[in-house]
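Why run this: before we spend reagent on co-expression, it is cheaper to look at a predicted model of the complex and decide which construct boundaries make sense. The entries below are exactly what would go into the expression plan.
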Amino acid sequence: MKNRLKLLRVERGWTQEQLGQALGVSRQAVNALETEKHDPSLDLAYRIAVLFARPVEEIFDNPHG
Amino acid sequence: MLNVWKTGTAAHRRYVLRTFAFMVPYMLICISMMVTDVFDEVIGKPAGWILAAAVSAPVIGQLWATLSLIRESDEFVRAVTAKQFIVSAGLAMALATFWGFAETFAEAPHLPGWLVYAAFWGIMGCVAPFIRASN
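The model came back. Tokens follow.
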């Protein structure tokens, strides 16, 4: 799923490890999200949205519309 | 395995420890059976069943270790691990089925059934590097 996660992370100067810790997932999971090798669950997508204080749609492209 | 230890999560490190705990006794029994005659005297005796149970117990332990890794990991690691396990198990079963029929109908040489577990891990080692996405 296309997303702006890497851009948002880099804007804040965070490493993948730091973002993973903030979200409660592994660095591998963050890397997989950024490289579109993993589509997040609804729960994880909302956690990411809360962390960056943005709506889910601003972070992840809706593939259905 | 060492790479997983260095770069993996705490769940990965627990998995490595559990794997060693189960694989060392399994390998010791298998290697002893292959290179010595230490188990020859149990052939045809009730102790043979105990030996069979003893060598299959670590296999069940390894299954528990893998399920624990899945339970203790995040959603990405969980999905990728399950995918790798399913593909490897499926290919190992296909290989065992192929060879079983080849023995029966194509005069292939007999191979002991317990080799399917070694085949599973060999296949896992080959396919895991190519299964890195959950979607």
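The interface with chain B takes residues 1, 24-29, 32-33, 36-41, 44 of chain A (CB under 8 Å). Residues 42-52 of chain A form the longest helix (11 residues). Bring this page to Monday's planning discussion.
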